[in-house]
Amino acid sequence: MSKEFKKSDRLNNLSYAIRGPVFEKAQQLEALGQKIINLNIGNPAPFGFDVPDEIVHDMILNLRNAQGYSHHLGIFSARKAIQHYTQQIGIKDVKIEDIFIGNGVSELIVMCMQALLNDGDQVLIPAPDYPLWTTAVALSGGKPVHYMCDEASDWNPDVEDMEKKISSKTKAIVIINPNNPTGAVYEKDILQKIVKLAEKHNLILFSDEIYDKILYDGHTHVPAATLSDDVFFMTFGGLSKNYRAAGFRGGWVIPSGAKSKAKSFLEGLTLLASMRLCANVPTQYAIQTALGGYQSINDLVGEGGRLKKQRDLIHYKLTDIPGVTCVKPKGALYVFPKIDMKKFDIGGDEQFALDLLAEQKVFIVAGTGFNYPDNQHFRAVFLPETDTLELATDRIAEFLNGKRIKSKKLIEA
């Protein structure tokens, strides 16, 4: 009798909505020759955002040097450049040997959770979140506990809710700033309160800052690790967004602050870094050039820049639809609008995403896929050119108008 090989039990309740059932449906439609407007994933390259030529040039020049394994933490020049960057942004006392380079931030998040968590340990994660964080905690045997971010306060974290959810099993707090999926850029006083909370309860603060240069309208980003010397911080950054190099898979994590508290954890992380031998080496040769050269992202997010124009357009068009509201993003590449479900015959955010794809060929992600509980939101990227965003938002408006519930007065008339 043949035996079925089943997946691990720890995968049973895990999901990654950005590449979930709606993604599979979109793949099926494209295989049938239908053209889909993809607003589902923050992947700059398909939308004409190229990696700066200087970065590509320096990678090519160093390919011969990149044939073998590197140091398990990363090549010296890349870690030196990251160290210099910490000095520019005000993170104190970071040594070259502190810095870990990985195959994107995603790998480093998973490694950090594996190095830290025992079964049942809890990690506070924002709601909405980037779902990799939730999945990485659960995959490592931990329990993700979601604290709320407040839409009425520009999606800043609700610090009171955060504190209520701290228990004796809590090991760490995660913040994502600038935020995916909401586009929030957290206010300094909110960050200070979170840092004080981490200090009070002796928690690690994991700060995902992959979008730290993608800022609009003069908003500034405050690195959490600049706010205390008494908290242990792990700050994540990389090439995929600021430098449009998502496929290069180049990321880093910077331990700082009260490193003396984390000696054992860092030993565990070093073991995991050694087990995967090293991060991909060609990309590591891009890091020094990226961090030290002209920051072309400023041209894209500033007045007249392509990303700013696209953000302004999608926000205007979506909020012009009766029954849709949206906090204007201050950073990152996404909008997270709210649909007043009482006004539409839709059946929730997941059904909305599936039906919108089937009827209008527009691919967005349901808000519950980001572990936000109210089933009235969705995330859309604003990477496509303005004419494509015009078409997409017109189709969303058409779809919603077709699902709009008519008032009793209109029906009686």
Structure in words:
The chain has 413 residues and is of the alpha/beta class. The chain has two domains: 9-50 and 299-412, Aspartate Aminotransferase, domain 1; 53-292, Type I PLP-dependent aspartate aminotransferase-like (Major domain) (Aspartate Aminotransferase, domain 2). Helix content is 37%, strand content 15%. The chain contains 14 helices and 15 strands. The protein has helices spanning 21-31, 53-61, 76-89, 104-116, 131-139, 159-164, 188-200, 263-275, 281-292, 297-301, 306-319, 349-360, 386-403, 408-412, and strands at residues 37-38, 100-102, 122-127, 143-150, 156-157, 170-176, 204-208, 232-238, 251-257, 324-325, 334-335, 338-339, 362-363, 365-366, 378-381. An eight-stranded mixed sheet has the order 2-9-8-7-6-3-4-5. Strands 11-15-14 form a three-stranded antiparallel sheet, with helices on one face. The chain has a two-stranded parallel sheet with strand order 1-13. The chain starts with 20 loop residues before the first helix and ends with a helix. The model is unreliable at 408-413 (pLDDT under 50).
